[in-house]
Amino acid sequence: MQVNRSIPSATVVPVLVYPDVRAAVAWLGAAFGFEERVRIGEDHRSQLRVGDGAVIVADVRRQQTPPDATTVTHRVMVRVEDANAHCERARANGAVIEMEPTDFEYGERQYQAVDLAGHHWTFSETLRDAAPEEWGGKLVSPG
User: Fold this and answer.
1) Is the pLDDT of residue 38 over 80?
2) pLDDT, mean over the chain
3) Residue 101: its pLDDT value, please?
4) Over the range 99-137, which residues count as b (16 or more CB within 10 Å of their CB) and which as e?
5) Which DSSP state fits 136?
6) Percent of the chain with pLDDT over 90
7) pLDDT per residue over 45-104, tens digit each?
8) pTM more than 0.70
9) What is 5-73 written as a DSSP string?
10) Cα angle at 77 between 30 and 10, to 5 degrees?
């Protein structure tokens, strides 16, 4: 893939709409540890990085609106080193914790949180390498 410094290098980049881009950038940094990479206008968009992934925070315009608090249309998953510590940081910064850190048979400890605009997040810490067949999954394509 060709390099372009004006776009995140991640293959998949969610674009999430927030009512206040600058407040979202500050909150996502404080609560989840995201780092601002590129600012586009003062209140239009911002590219954030997290590990080797990325997310774009977009403003409200045309058909773009933040989520409805009563409907979950998406959940963004982010891998972290320490789900317990990450959860406490998120909680301390006002994230609504939907599910406390929980160990799963597929080798992950995960927690779920809702951010200041109603976006749903899952944060996942790898505990062990688990073959999909161990817990009822099936590896269809390696990689």
Assistant:
1) yes
2) 94
3) 98
4) eebeeeebbbbbbbbbbbbbbbbbbbbeeeeeeeeeeee
5) T
6) 80
7) 999 999 999 999 999 998 888 888 788 888 999 999 999 999 999 999 999 999 999 999
8) yes
9) TTS-SSS---EEE-S-HHHHHHHHHHHH--EEEEEETTTTEEEEEETTEEEEEE--BTTB-PPPTT---
10) 85
Which residue shows structure tokens 């390099």? 3
pLDDT, position 122: 97
In order of start, what are the domains of the chain with their CATH numbers?
15-134 (3.10.180.10)
Which tokens sit at 85?
A: 């510590």
Q: Which residue's entry shows tokens 């776009």?
A: 7
Tokens of 88: 């406490």
Q: Bridge-partner residues for 46, per DSSP? A: 39, 57
**What are residue 110's phi and psi, to 5 degrees?**
-130, 150
> What CA–CA distances, in Å, run from 83 to 34, 52, 99, 118?
15, 17, 12, 20
Collect contacts of 95-98 with beta carbons under 8 A, ≥24 apart. 95/31, 95/32
Separate counts of helices (H) and strands (E) for the chain? 2, 8
